[in-house]
Amino acid sequence: MYIVDSTVVVPDHKADELISIYQNRSRSVDQWHGFRSFQLLQNDKKPGELTVHMEWESKEDYLQWAMSEEFQKIHELEKHYPDKELANIPPKVSKYKVVAK
């Protein structure tokens, strides 16, 4: 299994706005080969710290998604959020290979 976490830190008063965006996400990745799950995580002590947690069958499955036109379209939309403060916050992306369960 392969895990990809993408964390952003937004001002606390913007957290609900970003949560709403993800609650209404396109869900196109859900049908992608090798995709297992998506969760949006909110730090319990820092409400403005949000992490997209995605699980994949393999690194190769994730890379196929990351190189797809669909991925490009979705991430291009992020650059055009009406709220420019959110649009300009770069995520910290971490990738993990699951080595034990």
TrEMBL record:
<dbReference type="Pfam" id="PF03992">
    <property type="entry name" value="ABM"/>
</dbReference>
<feature type="domain" description="ABM">
    <location>
        <begin position="2"/>
        <end position="96"/>
    </location>
</feature>
<dbReference type="InterPro" id="IPR050404">
    <property type="entry name" value="Heme-degrading_MO"/>
</dbReference>
<dbReference type="InterPro" id="IPR011008">
    <property type="entry name" value="Dimeric_a/b-barrel"/>
</dbReference>
<dbReference type="GO" id="GO:0004497">
    <property type="term" value="F:monooxygenase activity"/>
</dbReference>
<dbReference type="InterPro" id="IPR007138">
    <property type="entry name" value="ABM_dom"/>
</dbReference>
<protein>
    <submittedName>
        <fullName>Antibiotic biosynthesis monooxygenase family protein</fullName>
        <ecNumber>1.14.-.-</ecNumber>
    </submittedName>
</protein>
<keyword id="KW-0560">Oxidoreductase</keyword>
<keyword id="KW-0503">Monooxygenase</keyword>
